Amino acid sequence: MAADLAIVRSPAEEALLARYPAFRARQAHWGGPSVARQREEAFDALKARGLPNRRVEDWKYTDLRALMREAPEPFESHTRELSVAAEAMRPVIALAEAKRILFVNGRSVFTGRADPARDGFEYASLLAGAEPAPSLAAALARERPYADNAAVALNTAFMADTVLLRVPAGTKVAQPLHLAFRELGEAPFSTYPRVLVVLEEGAELTLVETHDGPDGVAYQTAGLVEFEIADGARLDHVYVNAHGDAALNLWTFGVRLGRAATIASLAMTFGAAVTRQQFFVTQAGPDARIDLRGATMLRGSQHCDSTLVVDHALPGGVSRETFKTVLDDTARGVFQGKIVVRQHAQKTDGRMASHALLLSEDAEADNKPELEIFADDVQCGHGATSGALDRELLFYLKARGIPAKEAEALLIQAFLGEAVEGVAHEGLREALMAPVAAWLAARSR
Which of 87, 122, 200, 292 is most buried, by CB atoms within 10 Å? Predict the structure, then answer.
């Protein structure tokens, strides 16, 4: 007689399952039946599969079940005082001319610096009423090819607020829009922010995300930002991860591009103890352009996993994925990238590269680039490198009187600067080099 096998769950899984019913009851009056149904489906998936471990191929370098030892309570004690404290915090990067929307522990707070009517975009929040605004409801209802991803399911099950930003057709937003995500608290907590960005036909937007939080607090965040970029629209996007040194950060980007649409995105990461940043990009219209770049700086025992899937479904698409990682001490950097070219996506041009710079013998870089091609008239390739600083270049610089530490810093800055150079906005490009300089200065001390 076959014995029933008991499911052994981790403490984090047990905590997530135990607290969901009460969370669902508290959120029942927000979002209406469609949002409630999405939450329930995501929770059922989490319950059935649990958190992924290293036996799951896409997570073999980032064993979430082992890394997520606890699952702290979702943060729900939002107060005006908390918003004021977040407003007063020093910015991650200097963006004086940008319009800002502040997110405090996962929930959006308008501070008066962004005016949708004046600045050319619509803002809607799930917390604004029992039923979401029609534009937000439509965006929430669409199918997502990555919905069964563990980090996305976690976000969907426990989402409290969802924000829609919609740029009308033909509108070119003059100033960058800054989404400032700030985590505040003295005890461990978790947040599940979600943002939907819709660029209608021919619209243009520069969007900056910054993320930070306190050191020494084991908070967790599982966020989802989705971009719907219509025909001929262009999104320039920058993401800066400056999370606290004990944080666990799961952040997912879902992108869908129409005909001749463009996304140019840079992910800069130097915060959090553990980061998994995911990019799921679908070329849903012909002749779309995709440019994804990464600049990662890790030290101590930090771990960052950059996982991306670029799906070329229609002809004429061009994609470039270039990720640069600098690793010191016992830090670990992971790059998993896949370019998929569907049968009808002829004339696709896809190139993917990952480069890691190891500053310590104990640092580790794992690279796993892949191509999955079902069309015959394409140009696709991938490459990966890892190694130490070039000794000949170091010797050249030192021979000209530059001290060893300064010479190393110059080479590291040049290495990362190649990723930052692709940012179109000049002021933003300059601002992004400040965290690089600060990281290098801390290393030199």
Answer: 292
Q: pLDDT by residue (tens digit) across 399-410?
A: 999 999 999 999
Count the residues in the chain.
Answer: 445
Distance CA 322, CA 418 (A): 9
Is 389 within 8 Å of 376 (Cβ atoms)?
Answer: no
Residue 155 lies inside a defined structural domain of this protein: yes
Q: Does residue 367 lie within any of the structural domains?
A: no
Q: Is residue 198 part of a domain?
A: yes
pLDDT digits (tens, 9 = 90+) for 248-307: 999 999 999 999 999 999 999 999 999 999 999 999 999 999 999 999 999 999 999 999
- Token pair, residue 76, equals 């729900």
Is the per-residue pLDDT at 130 higher than 90?
no
At 278, the amino acid letter reads Q
**Are 31 and 161 in a shared domain?**
yes
State whether residue 332 is helix, strand or coil.
strand
At residue 89, the pLDDT reads: 81
Q: How far is CA 227 from CA 61, 231, 238, 271, in A?
A: 27, 13, 13, 24
Residue 104 shares a structural domain with residue 230: yes
Q: What is the pTM of this model?
A: 0.94
| Chain centre to alpha carbon of residue 49 | 23
Tally of domains in the chain: 2
Is residue 378 within 8 A of residue 347, CB to CB? The reply is: yes
- Angle made by CA atoms 32, 35, 39, in degrees to the nearest 5: 135
* Structural domain ending residue among the three candidates 285, 304, 338: 285
- The gap between the terminal CA atoms of the chain, to the nearest Å, is 66
Q: How far apart are CA 63 and CA 9, in angstroms?
A: 14
Residues 6+ apart with CB under 8 A from 271: 211, 212, 241, 242, 243, 244, 245, 247, 249
| 371 in a structural domain | no
pLDDT in the model for residue 1: 44
Integer Cα distance of 424 and 429 in angstroms: 7
Q: Which residues span the domain enclosing 434?
A: 390-445
Cα separation, 310 vs 247, in Å, equals 28
* Domain termination site, one of 225, 257, 285: 285
The predicted pLDDT at position 128 comes to 63
User: How far apart, in whole angstroms, are the C-alpha atoms of residue 285 and residue 256?
Assistant: 9
